[in-house]
Amino acid sequence: MRVKKAVIPAAGLGVRFLPATKAQPKEMIPIIDKPTIQYVIEEALDSGVEDILIISGRGKRAIEDHFDHAPELEAHLAQKGKEAALEAVRRISAMGNIHYVRQRQPLGLGHAVGCARAFVGNEPFAVLLGDDIVRSDVPCLKQMLDQHTRLGASVIAIEEVPQEDVSKYGVIKGREVGPRLYRVEDLVEKPPADQAPSRLAVMGRYILDPWIFDLIKETVPGAGGEIQLTDALRKLVEAQLLYGYRFEGRRYDVGYCLGYLKATVDFALEREEVREPFLDYLRRKV
Ligand code: G1P
């Protein structure tokens, strides 16, 4: 069944990025001049998704404004003849069908995804987390959708991480069953480094069977006192197939300071107009 809907949880409080996130959503923090959530939405649309649900929350209205029309700004840019800026602004408000629902309490990622039940209905759907931005030739979600079509089962993105980083992620126990492909046998959310079942960490892309909504409902708070998606997936693997796919591409964890900095530098070097002077600056710096 073709996946047409994607869910982007964006209700988190952004504690790791305080004080920047005190009065603005962390999803609106830009890498250079584009908010992080826009990169993720572009990936979903480039992968063929038609409808996107953003799980919003208190203090997140700037996200809705960003993807809406901005009549005063557009009129101003038109009057000043700033065509390129006008085009950039207009393009954003024409970016596919974006819907919103609020998670009223920050009870965890599993709970946030559970808020998408009415939107998703009874079909497989994608989840994209905004802290992970992937640069790749084929969009990461598209790679996973191709696997989903081929395998007819839920697929989650995985990546091998250094041992000292496993405690930041969900980690799978799995068996390699093909190129880049693992059959997931179990998962643990943020295990201590010495208790992790592997170094294969769950990254923020999932294609899930709608049965997950029933499982989320039964899930009690886990790591960090939150209702974890990983714990619901753990129940899913008891009765259904779940595959971990090691996607091709470079992932940036922009939810952490260092990952954010790496993304900023790499993305700047991709930009024609600043590449040379910026490289020059970096060379002198190091
Ligand atoms: C979430 C998930 C975790 C996953 C990670 C990927 O954690 O709970 O399983 O590995 O995203 O970025 P968070 O980053 O919200 O703490």
The strands making up the biggest β-sheet line up spatially as: 5-4-1-6-11-8-12-10-9
Mean pLDDT: 95
Q: How many separate domains make up the residues?
A: 2
Number of helices: 11
* Main beta-sheet strand count, sense and barrel state: 9 strands, mixed
Strand content: 25-35%
- Structural class, by secondary structure, is alpha/beta
Q: Give me the CATH superfamily of the largest domain.
A: Spore Coat Polysaccharide Biosynthesis Protein SpsA, Chain A
3D structure, described in words:
The protein has helices at 36-46, 61-66, 71-79, 83-93, 109-114, 117-120, 140-151, 212-218, 229-239, 257-269, 272-285; strands at 5-9, 30-31, 34-35, 51-56, 97-102, 125-128, 132-135, 154-160, 170-178, 181-189, 200-208, 242-246, 250-253. By secondary structure, it is α/β, with parallel strands linked by helices. The chain has 2 domains: 5-255, Spore Coat Polysaccharide Biosynthesis Protein SpsA, Chain A, CATH 3.90.550; 256-286, no CATH class. It has a 9-stranded mixed β-sheet with strand order 5-4-1-6-11-8-12-10-9. It has a two-stranded antiparallel ribbon with strand order 2-3. Helix 3 (71-79) runs antiparallel to helix 4 and helix 8 crosses helix 9. The longest helix has 14 residues, at 272-285. It starts with a strand and ends with a helix. Bound molecules: 1-O-phosphono-alpha-D-glucopyranose.
Entry summary:
This protein is α/β, with parallel strands linked by helices. It has 11 helices and 13 strands.
Main attributes?
2 domains, 25% strand, 9-stranded mixed sheet, 286 residues, two-stranded antiparallel ribbon, globular, 13 strands, alpha/beta, binds 1-O-phosphono-alpha-D-glucopyranose
